[in-house]
Amino acid sequence: MAPAGRLQAAAQEPDATDLPKMAAAAAAAAQLNKNPVEGFSAGLIDDNDLYRWEVLIIGPPDTLYEGGVFKAHLTFPKDYPLRPPKMKFITEIWHPNVDKNGDVCISILHEPGEDKYGYEKPEERWLPIHTVETIMISVISMLADPNGDSPANVDAAKEWREDRNGEFKRKVARCVRKSQETAFE
């Protein structure tokens, strides 16, 4: 795993048809190396695959997630940056905007264009100008300030609204402890 906000370089021999696609993922890596973001580190899952990254997110200070070390995977589609990557927490996390299987549900990772439910404005959704940096800043912000109005995990959202300092806090504390125990496995 590379230091905070740094990505390890990939050693691979690409197929000529993959070069334009890989250029966007490589550019994302270069941008991240140029502008590291405090609170996470990133690296390739497999040095031969620029499309699958592993990130470690440090729970933001002054939040219930403080002290946690949460592992997630960021998977880029072949037509990145036209479409957003998918993000999935591998470490268990209890959060209104992370469904029970770990998939992150935030506007910046939603497909570009109009929201068929009318909840999000197009400019809140994925745009090709977004970077790994903006994604990670959004995820860290999400940990600090959940959106209970558009939950991916309805049970966590209900607890966050109704019993934030009780059951919700206990479940998050358990996830933080577990993340610390398993962070470097």
UniProtKB/TrEMBL annotation:
Enumerate the Gene Ontology biological process terms. Answer: protein modification by small protein conjugation
Q: Which GO terms describe its molecular function?
A: ATP binding; ubiquitin conjugating enzyme activity
**What EC number(s) has UniProt assigned to this enzyme?**
2.3.2.23
Q: Which domain of life, per UniProt? A: Eukaryota
Please name the catalytic residues of this protein: C105 (glycyl thioester intermediate)
**A matching Pfam family:** UQ_con
Q: Which UniProt keywords apply?
A: ATP-binding, Nucleotide-binding, Transferase, Ubl conjugation pathway
Q: Is the keyword Transferase assigned to this protein?
A: yes
Q: Which catalytic reaction applies to this protein?
A: S-ubiquitinyl-[E1 ubiquitin-activating enzyme]-L-cysteine + [E2 ubiquitin-conjugating enzyme]-L-cysteine = [E1 ubiquitin-activating enzyme]-L-cysteine + S-ubiquitinyl-[E2 ubiquitin-conjugating enzyme]-L-cysteine
InterPro entries found in the cross-reference section: Ub_conjugating_enzyme, UBC, UBQ-conjugating_AS, UBQ-conjugating_enzyme/RWD
Q: Which residues form the UBC core domain?
A: 20-181
- Pathway listed: Protein modification
Q: What's the stated role of this polypeptide?
A: Accepts ubiquitin from the E1 complex and catalyzes its covalent attachment to other proteins. In vitro catalyzes 'Lys-48'-, as well as 'Lys-63'-linked polyubiquitination. May be involved in degradation of muscle-specific proteins. Mediates polyubiquitination of CYP3A4.
Family from the record: Belongs to the ubiquitin-conjugating enzyme family.
- PANTHER family assigned: UBIQUITIN-CONJUGATING ENZYME E2
What name appears for this protein in its UniProt entry? Ubiquitin-conjugating enzyme E2 G1
The species this protein was found in: Puma concolor (Mountain lion)
Organism phylogeny: Eukaryota, Metazoa, Chordata, Craniata, Vertebrata
